[in-house]
Amino acid sequence: MRKRTxxxxxxxxxxxxxxxxxxxxxxxxxxxxxDEVTDPPKVEEKLGGHGxxxxxxxxxxxxxxxxxxxxxRSNAEKFEFQAEVSRLMDIIINSLYSNKDIFxxxxxxxxxxALDKIRFLALTDKDVLGEGDxxxxxxxxxxxxxxxxxSIRDRGIGMTKEDLIxxxxxxxxxxxxxxxxxxxxxxxxxxxxxxxxxxxxxxxxADYIEVISKHNDDIQHVWESKADGKFAVSEDTWNEPxxxxxxxxxxxxxxxxxxxxxxxxxxxxxxxxxxxxxxxHLWASKEVxxxxxxxxxxxxxxxxxxxxxxxxxxxxxxDEDSEKKQKTEKVKETVYEWExxxxxxxxxxxxxxxxxxxxxxxxxxxxxxxxxEEKPMAWSHFNxxxxxxxxxxxxxxxxxxxxxxxxxxNSNKANLKLYVxxxxxxxxxxxxxxxxxxxxxxxxxxxxLPLNVSREMLQQHSSLKTIKKKLIRKALDMIxxxxxEDPDEVHDDDKKDVEKSGENDEKKGQYTKFWxxxxxxIKLGIIEDASNRNRLAKLLRFETTKSDGKLTSLDQYIxxxxxxxxxxxxxxxxxxxxxxxxxxxxxxxxxxYEVIFFTDPVDxxxxxxxxxxxxxxxxxxxxxxxxxxxxxxxxxxxxxxKELTKWWKESLASENVDDVxxxxxxxxxxxxxxxxxxxxxxxxxRIMQSQTLSDANKQAYMRGKRVLEINPRHPIIKxxxxxxxxxxxxxxxxETAQLMYQTALIESGFVLxxxxxxAWRIYNSVKSSLKISPDAVAEEEVEAEETETxxxxxxAKSDDLHGGGLNIEAEQVEDETPTKDEL
Length: 823
Hints:
Elements: H1 2-32, H2 57-69, E1 77-80, H3 85-96, H4 102-121, E2 139-144, E3 149-154, H5 161-169, H6 176-184, E4 206-214, E5 221-225, E6 230-235, E7 245-252, H7 262-272, E8 280-293, H8 309-326, E9 328-340, H9 357-368, E10 378-384, E11 390-396, E12 416-420, E13 423-426, E14 441-446, H10 455-459, H11 462-484, H12 492-501, H13 510-528, H14 533-538, E15 543-544, H15 554-559, E16 567-572, H16 576-580, H17 586-590, E17 595-598, H18 602-609, E18 612-613, E19 616-620, H19 634-640, H20 642-651, E20 657-662, E21 671-675, H21 682-689, H22 696-702, E22 706-710, H23 715-726, H24 731-747, H25 755-769, H26 790-803, H27 805-816
Parallel strand pairs: 2-8, 12-14, 16-17, 16-19, 20-22
Antiparallel strand pairs: 1-6, 2-3, 3-7, 4-5, 4-7, 5-6, 8-9, 10-11, 11-14, 12-13, 15-17, 18-19, 21-22
Helix pairs in contact: 13-18, 24-25, 26-27
């Protein structure tokens, strides 16, 4: 044992003497070879692999030199941003992106779009993916704490030099103001596979950004900028080849050090990008236990002599075994490896029973990129089976986009994503849902649709019609269920049971909220979708004369209808307050009938398509054809007022009045003007006249015939009847009849063609009531004398003090005024 130990020590000493000399030789040979031209080593075996973010020693040297200066490379081609960058960045940082955390969400989202694009191209050309690790569709995040660099890499479609200049250099194609408009209106700025405005949120945390990108159709280029109005693009000859895809390097600001912590990045990915369809890996550290050799302490070794050879051998064997056990020990060591951060299975592939409410909410936020605290109002997760099999998740957003109806018929934007066998195809299929349901968000994953066809051919596929039909039915069922689960929507008979249960407090008022946000879409659906008109009509909500300010449905209205009532009564106008005072409601309210208030301009179009519901006809109470019970004296009244109605019609011949009739809808008002059943109402005329491109000549054909209805029980009408009977040619009576007609027009909601004539008649009426002669006119203005009174002089002095130059002008005017003698 002692002999072996001595030999080992001598061997170690000899090595110590030899190593310095060897090192000097190596150093000398390196110096001698400095003049030789050598190619920098490349890590070809790591192309596109999990080590794709690593660099060799020469790369490190070149990069550190560039980073230390943080300036654009001298050999790069320089460009200027198209918009005022300082102003733009100020808007992004201070207005649009107040929360800095979102930069990672935006970059990962862009990387996901790029991966979606290359995967779609691979459906028809598998060679675009390449081979080996390059074919892996994933996102990688790596940290360099020493240099304060955060890198995000994807193996997506990549960008050519032209793409880099176009997509990253054009922040706002039509100026900063247009950019802000697009962002506020949720414009489609994040084009698939390209960088949109979200890319610039990276400047919230970085003061210098490099974008290295390789497209299959171009060589590798690097884009760099400090967002100071300039950027540069150059051929990348110093970084490791990417194979395909894009790597973004963020040189973080000093105050953004928190984003160099692994725990922070894990939290952000979990919060914002958990449901991204591609694996997201982080180059993360972890502690592992390893066995390391332990240095032996020679002083503890004891030299012992053995009595015999056999005993020595046995002892040597035992010593060797003990030495083997004591040579290593377990210690904690930090190692780095790729850690998968989004291991959640695609939510639509799971059973709805397995998915929690929190998971549905998180998936909605990820899908819609709406990261507010609000939950979606409702969702529907279902599997459709039969000729066409697909899985779908539909959501009702908590709020409507502010421009939802501004470009309703011009926008092709769709909020549904189409997948085929888990492969993203497009989010531009507006054929999946009709326009009136375009506010819904979600996705559809079909196993039936073909993969190897173009999007244009896919749009014409017969299966899409079947999918659309089922989606509409499920969407309407989801909205109907939202109403049924709302305690405020429950009928009076069932209210007590719901109040006792107290389980639906969270859902209380949800349908009212939905109606306020998306009610117009339901009305547009009734106009556009004849096959689902009755289903949509059940979802209608409105206020009535008996709803006490709450919304009610057609089913609830019909349930409250009076015995013998055959029609559903409604009235249209600009506001509920105006309609409540309408003369058309007087007799209906007195008799206890309920009338629906329609105050939205689209309601006029709606009622042209919604003719009946549950065998009940709709009747506009401002039009002809209103039937309110039976009046036994109708025939007698018509005969008694026959002479007056005939005379009045002749007097209004110039006003295009079609007829004068006895009214069955008035109680306190002397007369109103109604329109024919199939013509425009007064409210519709007002709406059409306010159109920008309205044509008065064409509108004349659509105007309803006007009928003057008089109240035979009103004292004014009775007196007028007596006056006409005694002297039908009396001009004062004719003037009164004309004034009453014009007043009735205004009260009925019409716009007067000649307001001046109406005002003249009103003033004549006032003269008559004040017993002023009809021929009396206003006195002519008398010219004032120029002699200054004491008050005028005082005012003039005041003007001199305060008016300055104005007083001079006044004096000049006075000088030019002729005196009384001159006149």
